[in-house]
């Protein structure tokens, strides 16, 4: 770049910067306002939320759970990936019990629970979390952390070809006194005994 | 409105323009946000869907970056928090050894030469490094001050290493790669953490972090860290002067202000000193006829930054990110000190176009101002300069055949006040013939824009005492000063990269990732001899032997990186990597550059490997072994560095879940080994010694 060109630079640069700002602002306005609400496709977590509700239709909990509590308790552990997607469940009934949803950070905070969803962000501590649940019966554990079912979780979400599927660990579910319908097992991608 | 008239007003104050730009953009965004008040999603009742239907719905997640990278068609490796913790690494450079293809060479206790796919050096300039979206690549010399970058390693969520030109998406000067260090959100670091440790080389470190929830949607963490690292041993076996002392403290706040908005604010302040031993050149005087002097210095390094980032999810397939940060730092080396102020505003918007396209576009502006205190040895002229960088990028991912073939077209357009307008396009193709195989290929262009050093340095590299061999009497009675000058004619260095990669899952729990590349470089940095002549600008009068920065070198490199990860048993993890690199450089005719070709060809190892084995013994104990090897450096700074193979190990015990005790041994196979030589600014390297340290981490 020659020296002569450089001397012209400063003023031209300022001018171009102003144009850049103007165009930038216009584009950004267009972007934010015009972003079409492409709500046609479902988001990943809307699908997983629906799965959670569907699982309850195919699984039998031990009778103690209904005896102990009037409420079907869903607990989300870790960073909540659902946003508000689980809220509509509170209007529905599971096993004729009202649904209550709680969000916790540490496994020690878990009190009564029927379905525990563990966030994928807790992947590093899955083994510790499942170990802490060892003694407790009647809690269905679900997660989308990697290899959840292999690590001892009951239902693990996996993504296959852009679709959400699931793997079931039948043995662990049986140990917690949960009965999984064969119809659900048939639909699972993998069933671990 | 006469723009030219406005331009004249702006000429008067160089802060006014960037400030106005920022305000305008923020204002527009805020008003647009109010207008685009999220319309309620005309929802399908998702709970009315049955499992058979759910199994067939194609989802587009609000793309966690990690997922997206796997599909971007680039050579990516993600270093997880678990990898970092189990490796025993105590600093970011050590953690970077975990990725294949990254060359990490320790120069001394506080200096590192880090690069990807060649061109390594203390001032390696082809690697872009970001910490939480903030660039730590300094425009002073186009590189990274590794002694200033640190954080509480436990709070790093992951490090994304992208090998190959990442310019199109990531930013200016990501020529050979991008390293993206991402810390955990404040929501993921609740409670108190205290970590202390010490050892033979790692004399002592203490870290503390306190995380809490300010409200249901807002979390914050505060942290502080103190680090003291010992001086090493130089090649002669003597105590060197390269200690590293650093204190830092900061905070991070994350808030889900609404269900679709996230706000992050981060700040940090650090202050420390880094030891440096260097050979200072000086003119001989009757009192002191020496032409160089070994100098030990303790350089202060301090800085602070404040960053804010707002992310809004507009829909299941679109979102925007707006980021603003201010970074200020001060460094010293070879006697000179420099201050840097950086303001950076960045905007990105992602959206789906029709059913087959995913578009990301963004725009940004960065303003940097430096202020150098010059010395006889190193000067930047003028000592103060402003740097403006405006950029715009567009990235389009097109699904040609659903699930099987994707095409990515993208480009980055930049304007900076050194080299003007730069275009960095790239094109990638991702083919998934059948799961789990993925094949990808890419062609990209990237540039390394001139640094302040390239343009304006005055570096008195060495002094030759009289009598001079090549000069006739009486001039040969004067000393000669070899001086390197920057040049305003210095051009951008250019890369045209061709890459091909393959990823697969050979068996469940056995993953393989292979990347190959061919890089063609042009306009690489050289120096060109000028006409020697007498110079009396500084006493005593001497002969000036000038060399001026130039772009006379071209060349090509090619190689491959292989990474394999295997979980043979649930409690045993194996990770291996291997990289191969060949470098061929050519000088243009009539070149007078004495060292750039040799340093570039010989400064990177041809092969590197790493093998890590991690055992989980019961529920409380873990044991890791890490064997790594680096081949010899044929020629760097006129010397060669022998290759080495070394072993690190870590044994950790968690007697209770809140407490972890660990014992780490590093570089165990030899008493000490050298890893690098410096190529410029003659800092004396020290050897890496066998060392041990212990650490206690308590969560409560």
Protein described:
- The complex is a heterodimer of chains A (193) and B (700).
- Chain A contains six helices and ten strands; from the N terminus they run ααβαββββαβββαβαβ.
- With 193 residues, chain A is an alpha/beta fold.
- Chain A has two domains: 1-35; 44-192, Rossmann fold.
- In chain A, strands 3-4-2-5-6-7-8-10 form an eight-stranded mixed β-sheet.
- In chain A, a hairpin with a 2-residue loop joins β3 (93-94) and β4 (97-104).
- Chain B folds into two domains: 1-37, no CATH class; 76-699, TonB-dependent receptor, beta-barrel domain (Maltoporin, Chain A).
- With 700 residues, chain B is mainly β.
- Helices cover 10% and strands 57% of the residues of chain B.
- In chain B, a hairpin with a 3-residue loop joins β21 and β22 (405-416).
- In chain B, the strands form six sheets. Chain B has a 22-stranded antiparallel beta barrel. In chain B, strands 1-8-9-4-5 form a five-stranded mixed β-sheet. A three-stranded antiparallel β-sheet of chain B has the order 13-39-38, with no helix packed on it.
- Chain B is globular, with a radius of gyration of 26 Å.
- The interface between A and B is large, with 67 and 77 residues.
Give the tags.
heterodimer, A: 193 residues, alpha/beta, Rossmann fold, 2 domains, eight-stranded mixed sheet, two-stranded antiparallel sheet, 6 helices, 10 strands, 37% helix, globular, B: 700 residues, mainly beta, Maltoporin, Chain A, 22-stranded antiparallel β-barrel, five-stranded mixed sheet, 10% helix
How is this fold's topology laid out?
The complex is a heterodimer of chains A (193) and B (700).
Chain A: H1 3-34, H2 44-58, E1 59-60, H3 63-68, E2 71-77, E3 93-94, E4 97-104, E5 115-118, H4 126-132, E6 140-143, E7 155-160, E8 163-169, H5 170-175, E9 179-180, H6 182-187, E10 190-192
Chain B: H1 3-12, H2 16-35, H3 51-54, H4 65-72, E1 75-80, H5 81-87, H6 92-96, E2 102-106, E3 112-116, E4 127-131, E5 134-135, E6 137-138, E7 143-144, E8 156-163, H7 167-170, E9 177-183, E10 191-199, E11 204-213, E12 218-229, E13 233-234, E14 244-258, E15 261-281, E16 292-315, E17 318-333, E18 336-353, E19 357-373, E20 378-380, E21 384-401, E22 405-416, E23 420-431, E24 438-448, H8 452-456, E25 457-464, E26 480-485, E27 493-507, E28 510-529, E29 533-535, E30 542-569, E31 572-587, H9 596-602, E32 607-617, E33 621-630, E34 633-636, E35 639-641, E36 644-653, E37 659-666, E38 672-673, E39 686-689, E40 691-699
Parallel strand pairs in B: 4-9, 26-30
Antiparallel strand pairs in B: 1-8, 2-3, 4-5, 6-7, 8-9, 10-11, 10-40, 11-12, 12-14, 13-39, 14-15, 15-16, 16-17, 17-18, 18-19, 19-21, 20-25, 21-22, 22-23, 23-24, 24-27, 25-26, 27-28, 28-30, 29-30, 30-31, 31-32, 32-33, 33-36, 34-35, 36-37, 37-40, 38-39
């Amino acid at each position: 770049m020659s020296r002569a060109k450089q001397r012209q630079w400063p003023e031209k640069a300022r001018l171009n910067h102003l144009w850049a700002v103007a165009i930038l602002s216009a584009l950004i306005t267009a972007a934010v306002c015009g972003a079409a609400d492409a709500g046609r496709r479902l988001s990943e977590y809307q699908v997983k939320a629906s799965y959670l509700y569907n699982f309850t239709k195919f699984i039998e909990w031990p009778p103690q759970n209904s005896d102990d509590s009037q409420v079907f308790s869903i607990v989300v552990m870790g960073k909540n990936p659902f946003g508000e997607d689980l809220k509509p469940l509170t209007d529905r009934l599971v096993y004729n019990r009202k649904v209550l949803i709680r969000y916790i950070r540490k496994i020690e905070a878990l009190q009564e629970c029927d379905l525990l969803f563990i966030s994928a962000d807790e992947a590093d501590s899955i083994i510790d979390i499942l170990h802490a649940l060892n003694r407790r019966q009647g809690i269905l554990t679900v997660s989308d952390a990697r290899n959840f079912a292999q690590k001892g979780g009951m239902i693990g979400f996996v993504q296959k070809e852009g679709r959400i599927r699931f793997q079931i660990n039948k043995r662990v579910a049986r140990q917690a006194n949960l009965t999984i319908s064969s119809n659900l097992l048939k639909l699972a991608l993998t069933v671990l005994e | 409105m006469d723009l030219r008239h406005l331009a004249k007003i702006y000429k008067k104050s160089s802060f006014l323009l960037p400030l106005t730009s920022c305000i305008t953009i923020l204002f527009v965004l805020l008003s647009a946000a109010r207008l685009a008040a999220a319309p309620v999603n005309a929802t399908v009742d998702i709970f009315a869907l049955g499992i058979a239907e759910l199994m067939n719905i194609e989802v587009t997640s609000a793309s966690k970056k990690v997922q997206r990278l796997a599909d971007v068609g680039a050579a990516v490796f993600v270093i997880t928090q678990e990898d970092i913790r189990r490796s025993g690494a105590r600093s970011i450079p050590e953690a970077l050894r975990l990725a294949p293809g990254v060359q990490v060479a320790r120069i001394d206790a506080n200096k590192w030469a880090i690069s990807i796919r060649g061109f390594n050096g203390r001032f390696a300039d082809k690697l872009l490094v970001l910490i939480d979206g903030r660039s730590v690549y300094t425009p002073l010399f186009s590189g990274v001050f590794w002694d200033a970058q640190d954080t509480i390693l436990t709070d790093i969520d992951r490090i994304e290493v992208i090998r190959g030109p990442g310019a199109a998406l990531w930013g200016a000067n990501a020529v050979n790669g991008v390293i993206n260090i991402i810390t955990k959100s404040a929501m993921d670091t609740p409670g108190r953490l205290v970590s202390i440790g010490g050892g033979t080389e790692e004399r002592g470190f203490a870290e503390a972090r306190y995380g809490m929830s300010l409200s249901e949607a807002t979390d914050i963490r505060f942290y502080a860290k103190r680090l003291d690292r010992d001086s090493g041993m130089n090649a002669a076996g003597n105590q060197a002067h390269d200690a590293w002392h650093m204190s830092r403290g900061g905070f991070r706040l994350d808030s889900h202000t609404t269900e679709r908005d996230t706000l992050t604010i981060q700040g940090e302040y650090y202050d420390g000193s880094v030891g440096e031993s260097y050979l200072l050149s000086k003119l001989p005087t009757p009192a002191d006829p020496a032409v160089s002097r070994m100098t030990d210095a303790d350089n202060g390094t301090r800085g602070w930054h404040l960053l804010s980032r707002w992310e809004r999810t507009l829909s299941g397939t679109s979102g925007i990110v707006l980021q603003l940060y201010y970074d200020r730092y001060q460094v010293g080396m070879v006697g000179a000190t420099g201050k840097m102020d950086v303001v950076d505003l960045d905007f990105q918007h992602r959206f789906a176009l029709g059913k087959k396209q995913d578009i990301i576009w963004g725009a940004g502006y960065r303003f940097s101002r430096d202020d150098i205190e010059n010395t006889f040895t190193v000067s930047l002229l003028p000592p103060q300069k402003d740097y403006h960088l405006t950029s715009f990028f567009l990235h389009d991912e097109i699904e040609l055949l659903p699930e099987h073939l994707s095409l990515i077209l993208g480009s980055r357009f930049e304007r900076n006040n050194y080299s003007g307008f730069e275009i960095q396009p790239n094109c990638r193709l991702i083919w998934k013939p059948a799961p789990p195989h993925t094949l990808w290929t890419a062609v990209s262009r990237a540039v390394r824009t001139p640094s302040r050093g390239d343009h304006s340095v005055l570096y008195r590299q060495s002094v030759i005492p009289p009598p001079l061999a090549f000069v006739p009497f009486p001039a040969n009675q004067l000393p000669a000063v070899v001086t390197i000058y920057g040049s305003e004619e210095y051009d951008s260095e250019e890369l045209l990269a061709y890459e091909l990669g393959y990823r697969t899952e050979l068996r469940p729990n056995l993953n393989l990732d292979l990347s190959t590349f061919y890089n063609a470089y042009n306009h690489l940095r050289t120096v060109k001899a000028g006409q020697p002549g007498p110079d009396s600008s500084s006493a005593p009068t001497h002969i000036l032997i000038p060399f001026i920065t130039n772009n006379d070198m071209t060349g090509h490199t090619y190689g491959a990186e292989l990474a394999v990860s295997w979980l043979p048993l649930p409690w045993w993890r194996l990770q291996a990597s291997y990289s191969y690199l060949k470098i061929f450089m050519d000088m243009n005719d009539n070149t007078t550059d004495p060292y750039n070709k040799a340093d570039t060809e010989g400064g990177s190892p041809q092969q590197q490997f790493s093998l890590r084995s991690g055992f989980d013994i019961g529920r409380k104990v873990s044991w890791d072994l890490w064997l790594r090897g680096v081949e010899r450096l044929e020629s760097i700074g006129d010397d060669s560095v022998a290759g080495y193979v070394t072993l690190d190990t870590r044994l950790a015990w968690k007697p209770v879940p809140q407490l972890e005790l660990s014992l780490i041994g590093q570089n165990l196979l030899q008493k000490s080994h050298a890893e690098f030589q410096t190529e410029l600014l003659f800092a004396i390297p020290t050897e890496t010694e066998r060392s041990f340290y212990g650490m206690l981490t308590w969560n409560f």
